[in-house]
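Page 37, continued from 36.
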C-alpha cells in the first residue's frame, strides 16, 4: 500500500506543479490575502476530484488486464503530449506577471477564512474537471489494486502543490519557470507510458 501511495504522489506532484491550478492558487492568495483559507478550499476541491478519479479508475480496472493496460498507456501518452505542448506554448508574460505579483486583483482587506476557502473551492473544483492529474489518478487507480492508497497519494501530491503555491508560489515561479516544470512532468508521463507498455509485453 505504501508503494502505491508513493507512486501516486511521485506521479501527481510534478504534473500539478506547472498546472494552471498553481497559477490560480497564487492569484487567489493575492486576491483574498488569506493563504490558509485558499489552501483549505483547494484541498476540499482536490478531494472531490480524487474521489471521482479513483472511482473511475476502479471501474476501468474491472476490464480485462490487457484492455486496462492499453487504456492506461494511452492516458499517459496523451498526458506527456499535452505537457510537452504546454511547455512549448507557455505564456511567458503570465509567468512574469505572476512572479512579480502584477495580477488583476489589487490589495484589499484580507478575506475571512470562510470566504477565501469557499471562493477557492468554487474556482478550483470547476477548473480541475478532466485535468491531467485527474486522468493520471484514474490511470494509477485502474492498475494499482489499491484505490485508497492511490487516492491518498494523489491527494497528498495535490495538497503539497497547493501548499507551495499558497505559501511561496510567487518566489518559486521567479526561480523555476513554469515551462521547465512542464518538460519535467512530460518526461515523467512518457516514462510511465513506456513502463506500462513494458509491463504489457
Amino acid at each position: 500500500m505504501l508503494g502505491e501511495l508513493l507512486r501516486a504522489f511521485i506521479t501527481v506532484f510534478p504534473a500539478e506543479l506547472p498546472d494552471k491550478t498553481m497559477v490560480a492558487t497564487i492569484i487567489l492568495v493575492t486576491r483574498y490575502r488569506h493563504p490558509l483559507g485558499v489552501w483549505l478550499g483547494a484541498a476540499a476541491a482536490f478531494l472531490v476530484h480524487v474521489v471521482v478519479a479513483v472511482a473511475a479508475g476502479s471501474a476501468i480496472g474491472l476490464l480485462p488486464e490487457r484492455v486496462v493496460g492499453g487504456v492506461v498507456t494511452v492516458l499517459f501518452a496523451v498526458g506527456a503530449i499535452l505537457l510537452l505542448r504546454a511547455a512549448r506554448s507557455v505564456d511567458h508574460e503570465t509567468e512574469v506577471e505572476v512572479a512579480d505579483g502584477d495580477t488583476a486583483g489589487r490589495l484589499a482587506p484580507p478575506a475571512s477564512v470562510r470566504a477565501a476557502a469557499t471562493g477557492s473551492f468554487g474556482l478550483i473544483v470547476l477548473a480541475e474537471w478532466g485535468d491531467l492529474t485527474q486522468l493520471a489518478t484514474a490511470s494509477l487507480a485502474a492498475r494499482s489494486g489499491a484505490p485508497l492508497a492511490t487516492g491518498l497519494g494523489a491527494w497528498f501530491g495535490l495538497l503539497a502543490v497547493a501548499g507551495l503555491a499558497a505559501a511561496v508560489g510567487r518566489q518559486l515561479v521567479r526561480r523555476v519557470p513554469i515551462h521547465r516544470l512542464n518538460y519535467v512532468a512530460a518526461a515523467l508521463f512518457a516514462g510511465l507510458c513506456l513502463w506500462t507498455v513494458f509491463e504489457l509485453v
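The radius of gyration is 17 Å. Flag for discussion at group meeting. The chain has nine helices and no strands.
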